[in-house]
User: Fold this.
Amino acid sequence: MKRFHIALAVANLDESIEDYSRRLGQPPSAVVPGQYAMWRTDLLNFSINVKPGQAGQLRHVGFEDDAAQGYSSSVDVNGLEWELFCAAEQDRRIVGAYGVPAKH
Assistant:
């Protein structure tokens, strides 16, 4: 399966989880309290992390793809970072960057 990935910076994790859970129609798949949350829907891999000074800004985009080997990233002609990864690799990177999710 291939899902489009969007990563946003937010000011308040708990308020953002409540808002985006309502918008996406489901709770997050992973939450690292005070730092990070991620949703996997049928078509979308959506993640947020706390960066109050950058709240509302797009951090990067890309694809979660079951066929992807590991992780790669590149920058497009507009300076936007694009990532490509499989779900297992993203899960490993979440733990490495933020710690073990409380909900996953």
In short: DSSP finds two helices and seven strands in the chain.
